[in-house]
Design brief:
The structure holds two protein chains of two kinds.
Chain A: H1 6-15, H2 21-30, H3 38-45, E1 72-76, H4 86-94, E2 97-101, H5 107-119, E3 128-129, H6 133-141, E4 145-146, E5 175-187, H7 189-192, E6 211-214, H8 217-227, H9 237-252, E7 256-260, H10 264-270, E8 275-279, H11 280-289, E9 294-296, E10 302-312, H12 318-328, H13 331-341, H14 350-357, H15 359-362, H16 371-375, E11 377-378, H17 385-398
Parallel strand pairs in A: 1-2, 1-3, 6-7, 6-8, 10-11
Antiparallel strand pairs in A: 4-10, 5-8, 5-9, 5-10
Helix pairs in contact in A: 8-9, 9-17, 13-14
Chain B: H1 2-8, H2 20-54, E1 56-59, E2 63-66, H3 72-79, H4 81-112, H5 117-125, H6 132-142, H7 148-156, H8 169-193, H9 198-205, H10 210-239, H11 242-247, H12 255-264, H13 269-294, H14 296-304
Antiparallel strand pairs in B: 1-2
The chains are: A alpha/beta, B mainly alpha.
């Protein structure tokens, strides 16, 4: 069995990621270059077959990652998600190097890229990744995550109370939030001609063809459910499905211009979109160049999520990853990141620090939300893997693919 | 060169294993090997692999197992007939548009451009120096709702006051036409440029009108170039998904968008593999039909010209 798909392998070869000589030979054997045998050939073809046997959460009792030389720590994170000033600080303190790669562009796409290695029980050449809550849940449930040795992360005590017990990782045994965010409505009052207040304003016929939603159903359907008076965090599959159906109706009426990923920002800034489902941090950044844009946490509520630091199976240095988690949970470093990134900061004590340097930022509800804002935010629904797949397929139908 | 000759000479001497005769027999084979390996690794293996995966059933979380589920083919065709037909329709329209724009351009370059010919050739190829995605994103900017183009078209009344260009079928087809135009122009130019112009003179000497001469001489001689241009434009255009994704909406998605999303988002690998396999078969069928129609020799001649 090959341990990763050939195209992904060539992908890595071209991008200059580390590939050991042994893995090259194994890969060549698998693709029939060295061993022309039929079995190797069929193995190469059968790469999609999964192994369900090892599908078990890792044991979280007795996690022990003793101090050891770190070498190079490899972190795959979302683009524009760090102030790179913090990296040298950690490197110096731990006498280590970090390879910080911004190749985590999309939860499903990243998962699709590394899935085969994970299924074969192999490492993915990374020590830290940054999946969003629901994707982190998948990694944990499939046993692809290494539990955190909490002795190495004393600063984890600074985690905001509201984030300490998410349903997918009750005691934060596997994950620590990198940044959190709010999904709400981004809009341009100059175009809409009025202030918006409700999610259902997106369906105002006057905005026909000028609104967009995310092609990924959790945020889009979550907001629609809030508009329908349903609490998304406890929603059933039927309720989610009904919300997707509502999106379908609006799409067929021509109300929705496009289904997007992060690229909605371009359309919103260009004036092609008047209002859209949007992420808080994007709007903070967009406002810098387009002061007229507004981010709305609708009266009915907004969605909230975190991108989580998680140590993937086969990581070379779990200890190194933990020292980095500890480093960015120090309010000092967390403040530097928060000032750059503009999503909301999961570390307590940062607001006070930032207030001294940048009072305006410290008062921003999108970066340091107060209790009233936090109380109006809802988590993603937690459903079975099979239900999630069906809803994903239903949403893909709506979005035309 | 001479040092190479000296180096091989001793090995070719009589009595050695590699006799001159053997070497001459093996040489063509050795020349074919790299191309053959390329075909096997990047074409034959992927095709077999797609077929193999397409017949599996299961789900991405528990794994897929081989079950020879041939029903996936009729199922995915009926499920995505809309996008399949749309791919053919968009690619077809764009190919016709490319021909309408490309033929006069190629004609002009071959016969009228004189010393500017190389400059025009360079201009045709120039867009290739930038990535396809960058060029298409540039069109997003050019066609925004607030752009002067849209404003002008609204003033003239070509699009309604609340109309738009971006996120419409027109934008997608225009994008494909723009992106694939060089594939049409270059083979057309090559076949026109090789043409013996004296044949047209002879025709007019024999009282053919200019139009008759064009129809009876120029067009038939450009035939292989037209075929090659149509194939080179149409085939990649069917599989294109960048234009639909960047310039269209979900109502413009083509089969490439479906394959991408089935592979990366829904993780329904068998469906994705089946659709890819269907696309490969469609493309092969088109090439085979074209080869039948005008012959492999002329086809490859035109394609490499």
């Amino acid at each position: 069995m090959p341990d990763e798909s050939l195209d992904h392998f060539f992908d890595r070869l071209v991008s200059g990621e580390p590939i050991s000589r042994r893995s090259v030979l194994r890969k060549m054997a698998a693709s029939g270059i060295v061993v022309g045998g039929a079995s190797a050939f069929l193995a190469a073809c059968g790469g999609v077959e999964g192994t369900s046997s090892d599908k078990e959460k890792a044991d979280t009792s007795n996690v022990n990652h003793p101090k050891a030389p770190i070498g190079t720590l490899v972190f795959s994170n979302w683009p524009l998600y760090i102030d790179s000033k913090v990296i040298p600080g950690w490197e110096k303190a731990n006498d280590a190097k970090m390879r910080y790669i911004e190749d985590y562009n999309d939860n499903e796409e990243f998962y699709a890229k590394v899935r085969q290695e994970l299924e074969q029980g192999q490492g993915i050449g990374r020590d830290l990744v940054a999946p969003t809550d629901w994707m982190a849940a998948r990694w944990i449930d499939q046993g692809y995550a290494i539990p955190i040795d909490k002795k190495n992360v004393p600063n984890a005590k600074n985690l905001l109370p509201s984030l300490q017990h998410p349903p997918f990782d009750k005691n934060r045994d596997f994950t620590l939030p990198w940044q959190s965010g709010i999904t709400g409505v981004g809009y341009d009052p100059k175009k809409t001609g009025r202030k918006l207040s409700s999610i259902n304003d997106l369906f105002d016929p006057a905005f026909k063809g000028r609104i967009s939603m995310f092609s990924e159903w959790r945020d889009s359907a979550g907001l629609v459910m809030l508009g329908q008076g349903v609490d998304p965090s406890t929603a059933t599959k039927a309720q989610c499905s009904a919300a997707i159906e509502k999106i379908n109706e609006e799409n067929e009426k021509g109300q929705i211009r496009r289904f997007t990923g992060n690229d909605y920002t371009k359309d919103l800034a260009a004036g092609n979109l008047w209002a859209c489902v949007a992420w808080s941090g994007d709007l903070v950044q967009l406002k810098a160049d387009n002061p007229s844009l507004e981010f709305l946490v609708p009266d009915e509520g907004g969605m909230t999520w975190s991108d989580n630091m998680l140590i993937p199976q086969g990581a070379k240095t779990p200890y190194g990853a933990e020292t980095f988690m500890n480093y960015v949970y120090d309010p000092e470093a967390a403040g530097v990141i928060a000032e750059y990134v503009n999503y909301f900061c999961p570390v307590a004590g940062v607001q006070e620090l930032v207030a001294k340097r940048n009072p305006e930022l410290a008062a921003n509800q999108l970066i340091f939300p107060d209790k009233a804002t936090l109380d109006n935010l809802y988590a993603y629904p937690s459903l079975s893997a099979a239900d999630e797949r069906e809803l994903t397929a239903q949403m893909q139908k709506v979005t035309g693919a | 060169m001479s040092s190479g000759g000296e180096a091989t000479a001793p090995r070719g001497k009589p009595g050695g294993w590699l006799t001159l005769r053997r070497r001459n027999a093996l040489l063509p084979l050795a020349l074919v090997v790299p191309g053959l390996l390329w075909l096997v690794i990047f074409y034959a293996i992927p095709i077999v692999s797609q077929l193999w995966i397409s017949l599996q059933t299961g789900n991405p979380d528990d794994g897929f197992a081989q079950s020879w589920n041939w029903a996936v083919y009729p199922d995915s065709i009926s499920e995505y007939s809309e996008q399949l037909l749309r791919s053919l329709q968009y690619a077809g329209t764009a190919t016709v548009a490319c021909f309408i724009i490309g033929f006069p351009l190629a004609y002009f370059m071959a016969f009228k451009a004189g010393r500017w010919r190389n400059l025009f050739l360079l201009l045709v190829v120039l867009p290739f120096f930038t990535s396809l995605i960058v060029r298409t994103v540039a069109w997003q900017t050019i066609l925004t709702d607030d752009s002067w183009i849209v404003g002008a078209l609204k003033t003239v009344g070509l699009i309604p006051p609340d109309g738009r260009l971006l996120a419409t079928s027109f934008a997608v087809i225009a994008g494909i036409t723009y992106n694939f135009l060089p594939f049409m122009v270059l083979p057309l130019y090559a076949s026109l440029e090789r043409m013996d112009r004296t044949l047209v003179e002879a025709a007019t000497d024999l009282y053919a009108s200019r139009w008759t001469a064009f129809r009876k001489i120029t067009l038939p001689l450009a035939g292989p170039g037209i075929f090659a241009g149509v194939l080179l434009t149409f085939i990649p255009a069917i599989g294109d998904y960048i234009n639909a994704q960047l310039l269209g909406t979900s109502q413009q998605y083509m089969i490439g968008n479906v394959i991408q999303s089935q592979y990366l988002v829904v993780r329904e690998y068998p469906t994705a593999a089946a659709l890819s396999f269907i696309m490969m078969v469609v493309v092969l069928a088109i090439i085979a039909a074209a080869a039948r129609l005008i012959g492999t020799k002329r086809l490859s001649e035109a394609a490499v010209a």
